[in-house]
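The freezer alarm interrupted the setup, so I double-checked each line after restarting. Inputs confirmed:
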Amino acid sequence: MTNVRPKAEGQSDEDEVPDGGWGWVLVGALFVSTSLVFGLMRSLGIFFVEFVQYFEESAQAISWISSTGLAAQQFFSPLGAALCNAYDARVVVMTGGCLAGLGLILASQATCLVHLYLTMGLISGLGWGLVFTPMVATVMANFTRRRALVLGVGFSSIGLSSFAFNPLFQLLVETYAWRGALLILGALSLNIVPCGALIRPRRRSKAPAKLDSESGSSRAAVLRRVSSYLELSLLLERPYVTYTLAVTLLNVGYFVPYFHLVAHSRQAGFSEYQAAFVMSAAGATDILGRVASGWFSDLGHFRSIHLLTVWTALAGVFIMLLPVSSSAGSYAALMAISLFYGFCSGALTSLVFAVVPMIVGVERVMGALGLLQLIESGAGLLGTPLSGLLKDITGNYMASFVVAGGFLVLGSLTIATLPHYFSCKEPPPPQRRSLDEKDEGLHPELEQMHSSPSDPNHRGVNEVSSNPQECVG
Amino acid sequence: MSASWKQILFQILLLVSCRYINTKTPGPTPPPLVPITSLPTDERSVILEGESHTEKVELLNPVNLALACTWTGNQNKQPNITGFWRKDGDEVENSQVTVQLEGDQYKLKRVFSIVSEESLGSYSCVFGSEEAKIEFVLAAPQIGEVRDKPIVSYVGDSGVIACKMDETKPKPITWNWYKANGTDKEQIFAVAEPPRHVIKNEERKTKLVVYNLTEADGGLYYCGAVYAISTTMSHVELKVISFQEPLKPFIAILIEVIVLVAGILLYERCQSKKDYTAGNGTIEQTNTMTQGENNGPEEGSSVRQRKV
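Predicted 3D structure, all chains:
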């Protein structure tokens, strides 16, 4: 099915944007690239045992490698978003894939721990940052009605791939030692490059518009351009700030069960295998939750934002119930609560990003996601040490889990403070306020579309996405 | 004259008293004893109620070990029963005795001198004709975790092999490392210059680091925990591979990536060419297409002017 058809500008974009066609190919690309970013990150634990032995460092020093990688991915997300706005998503993702692969390939030659921080942490993290946000934003731009479902499907790859990668990495390390395994992993990461190549080249860019309107390259002009690429104006808008705050609160508590559930199960008296099985079962329902919630949200019976609140609150409640259920000593209760928790936490992940276009408008999704990732990274770094500290002080995990669940419930309440929260219908998404006169003049068809929306929910978003500033893949 | 009489009297007195002294000497001196090595003594006893039982005994130092077997007997409690000792399947000489039934139990006890590795092994006391058997397995502390997968290292790189003795077991005196040479084991000594093998011993842990690996360095390595009584061994395999090994899958995946990217870009070019020939072929659309094609991964920024 060809989408690159020589039509009038507005027309061709509107045909591309509705769900289907090349969009599904991009979903596949998102699936693969997300698994190679986060699925890989989650399975790096297998290398850590080898690193501890080879470099003779403490486990904590080694675990900083993955923390650096994750932090770099989130920190460079706005950079990826800005580059995508300035140039082309395709180039950015392909470059990111090359960097991610390069980082791992260089890591295979490391002779000291600092090398690993720089290569596996910084370079690969930079690459991952340039890949994740642009891919997500591109896929979201290609879908309107099935946004949550495709995101759910795309993110389900994280869980599935960590199932597949754990034994694979183990095999690689046993056959080739960690150096060879990292080399092969680098090559695997390069598979992100074809995923990026699948993004359709953009036929318009912001750059010419800005160049025309700005007078030369004075400092102020450059700064203004950079800030528009980074979408820094979003930080002044109350809905976005509220949402970012809610997601940040969510992130503080979200990762706690991943880190502490196994230890908590062991402390409650269950065996190693039982504890590990609880974790795996939660992981399985997580995958299920992502896809199911995406599908359900797209049915349209409820507003996505309401569903997100429900899932977040439920996940918070189940996290709080986790220590309660295991303190009773019942394995069945712990398993049941973990399954529910897994489902809810997966369900909320597919909606967290799908809701963003409705708050900021589709054309600013790229920058919005980048900033969101950056701000929520701090929360992730805060949450786990805090829960560890609570455990050290109180002696068991009860306090950590209750606090983590509390943060999630708080996050869901914060979402409720968004404007137009209590209306049953979706409010019209914000239009870009800083449109140049020239741009509007160039697209008379678009203007007509804007003024006569048939379905405020979907069509409005649809038209706004065919705005020239959109980074459509 | 009286002085000499006194002398004679005195001498007679001495003689008599000396004789008395002589007769009061203690009895015959015992014959000189064979020097007994002063080994400590220890005892292990087992009460058996069924038919057989195995008891593990961990020994560190040479000891005189008394093994005591007590059997409650079976249905027909005979007043007398034969009992003998066995070591590693062979009957111990002159160990067969007749055991009396004492208070509903048969007791058999013997002291063994455990001095070296040969003395270790399996000692069994047997009642009757194999009616009841208690086995004592005498051994030095064993190394628990044995790594069954080989350690892989690269030619030119350094390889680390480690052995660990459980925290619950007593610490060895020292550690020795051996390399398998055919069926023999050759002890490894850390040579100062150039440093090829470095042994780092740390009470319960030991590490052998081999620098500048070659293919010949691969094979089975044995670490031995040395105790006064014997040395317990554990083995680890070291596999040395050349860097070409992982390079093969690496290059394979690289080729796959390049093929995919080239395929995708070519497909896109074909599609746009098709549209070009099939489409309305206005100039602006040509510009669109060529610019679209030019926007490959090689170019960086894409500054295009749209003409409507």
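Quick read of the result. Chain A touches chain B at residues 2, 4-6, 8-9, 53-54, 86-88, 90-91, 94, 174-177, 179-181, 183-184, 186-188, 190-191, 193-194, 196-198, 200-205, 207-208, 211, 442-443 (CB under 8 Å).
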